[in-house]
Amino acid sequence: MLPGRTEAIESLQIFKGISFPGDIRFRQILVTGPPGAGKSTLIMRLGGWSEEGYLDLGRKHWWRSEILAVRPREIHIGLPFVGIDEAVSVFDAQFLDRDPLPQVDFDRIMLPPRKRFIFTVDWYRRYVFEFLLPPAELVFERRQIRARHSTHPVDAQLSLAICASQREIFRQLAVFMHAQGFQVYVREGIENPPLRFVEPTSGP
Asked: 0.90 exceeded by the pTM?
């Protein structure tokens, strides 16, 4: 897997006061990231689809899911993990109750077919995945505040270590999806500029 080195995107455009890569369309955007990353806030600012969607990347034909028909929108992602039969999210008990927390089983992530003919859909270019990845310390602070008000059930099990692990899982997923050819970029926060992954350079 690529190390996931990033760099600033030079060509930008502004949607609703927020910077995005200049080569994408507004209706392509899917926002994901760990709990507490700010996904809902970003979608509300964009005026996108406010209803959260769940996408199981271990399921066949997830790229045809009806929840992806309306964009931009926030998506929660279910992933296959080592030692867990079904795909789960990073806030499910099947994931959180393991010690140590399990690793993503990338071999079980389903991938769409490559575009072969002019009239077939290029699933790798149809969507643009924004991974919102604030520092784990900031997410932990936000979720501690939420937990005191009991507004989000996902905050029931909470620690800095869990927040760091959840962030790392999404970072690894972003690197994986980039390596497969999906359109992917990351940012730390809504006000931060988007970053793209940089391919590793070979030595002399």
From this structure: yes
